[in-house]
Design a protein that fits this description.
The protein is mainly alpha-helical and 382 residues long. It has three domains: 1-88; 121-254 and 351-382, no CATH class; 261-327, no CATH class. The chain has 19 helices and four strands. Helix 9 (124-132) crosses helix 12 and helix 13 (197-207) packs across helix 15 (227-253). The longest helix is centred in the middle third of the chain and has 27 residues, at 227-253. The radius of gyration is 26 Å and the shape is elongated.
Length: 382
């Protein structure tokens, strides 16, 4: 179908409004917008895409074909101009002209979104996530004397996606993937070389099978026009990716528990070789696998955990307290905590994390200062 033939297009659109999305897909392939008559026709028929009886699977497939185009930004702008966007994605329509910093000229959220989608790897679910990653900025935008904030917009956006997903024929695993990526698209912002290996392992574990998609989305979410800043942010993501891979390779080669931990348990609790020792080691390995405790720590760490959990019976309270004290504080991640700091060491000395977007140049916002940060530090000016 050629959008260059308005009369032919009219008949097709009148018979099937999903043809409008197929026109958008053609724009995404070529970058060429159709004649004004076709654009006006699309605007006149846009509301029909919300009519009862529209095939959600076909509509989703047509949108996905558009999203996979190399000139997707041009197609998205046409979809906005023809009012198709407000019919299918009112949450995205609300980002048009949504400014991100008071008193300065910066891309609005819609312009940023179009660029991010175009920069994203051409995998369908990642492009869906790129399209919707900032919808939470609309309800979370606040103005203070310090600037514009979008606190918690990733989590809010994920909840907003729950409603959007009902309009299209997503399979359960597809919905989960897109929602996860929207919810966690800021997570790589938090990374710094101050992270311990434990924090990196925990990040990897929490991202699970979505790690590659998340890193690719994070790279696409960099829209700074300053080459130096762009390079810095890309290097930050690459450094995190490298550490994840290196630790995963190391963990695959080494056992989770140090050699000799069994002897350390027997000595600490004054027990003889028995089946109990094997049971305790297996219990420790299960907790390492679950992420409750860390792998390859010193013997005292595991002895303290056993004492803390009361896994060895009939231990005197004084001795139990001494063993716990000798092992030091046990850092246990709180898996119920939502938000920007989930999975990051609490004593991370970095000055703060971006509270509202990946790129402080074209997605400007304030930093949330760390409790120990110097408020006069010029690096906290955004």
């Amino acid at each position: 179908m050629s959008p260059e033939q308005p009369d032919a297009v009219r008949g097709l659109v009148e018979a099937d409004p999903i043809v409008l999305l197929e026109l958008a897909a053609a724009i995404a392939d070529t970058g060429r917008t159709p004649p004004d008559r076709v654009t006006m026709l699309a605007a006149d028929h846009a509301a029909r895409l919300a009519e009862p009886g529209i095939d959600a699977q076909r509509m989703r497939s047509a949108i996905e074909q558009m999203l996979m185009g190399t000139q997707i930004d041009a197609a998205l702008e046409w979809v906005h101009q023809t009012r198709i966007l407000r019919v299918l994605f009112p949450e995205l329509e609300a980002t048009v002209d949504l400014t991100q910093e008071d008193g300065r000229q910066h891309k609005d959220v819609w312009a940023h979104t179009k660029q991010v989608v175009r920069q994203t790897v051409r995998r369908p679910l990642v492009r869906w996530a790129a399209l919707l990653h900032d919808i939470g900025k609309v309800p979370t935008r606040t103005f203070t004397e310090h600037g514009v904030h979008f606190h918690g917009h990733a989590e809010v956006g994920a909840r907003m996606f729950d409603r959007i997903s009902n309009r299209f024929a997503f399979a359960r695993d597809e919905r989960h993937t897109i929602r996860f990526l929207v919810k966690h698209h800021l997570r790589t912002n938090q990374y710094g070389d101050q992270w311990t290996d434990s924090a990196v392992r925990r990040f990897h574990r929490e991202m699970g099978p979505y790690m590659t998609d998340l890193l690719d989305l994070s790279r696409a979410d960099i829209t700074s026009k300053r080459p130096g800043r762009r390079k810095q942010l890309l290097e930050q993501i690459s450094a995190l990716s490298d550490r994840v891979q290196n630790l995963a390779e190391l963990d695959a080669k080494l056992p989770p528990l140090p050699t000799g931990v069994g002897n350390a348990i027997m000595t600490a609790f004054e027990i003889s070789p028995s089946r109990l020792i094997g049971d305790l080691k297996r219990a420790l390995e299960k907790e390492i696998e679950a992420g409750t405790i860390e792998a390859r720590r010193e013997d005292e760490y595991y002895v303290a955990h056993i004492a803390r959990q009361g896994l060895v019976p009939n231990v005197a309270p004084e001795k139990r307290a001494a063993l716990i004290s000798a092992g030091g504080a046990l850092e246990i991640p709180d898996d119920d905590v939502e938000g920007m700091h989930k999975g990051v060491d609490g004593d991370d000395p970095s000055p703060g994390v971006l509270s509202c977007g990946h790129d402080p140049e074209n997605d400007p916002c304030k930093l949330v200062p760390h409790r120990d940060a110097d408020p006069d530090d010029p690096d906290l000016r955004r």
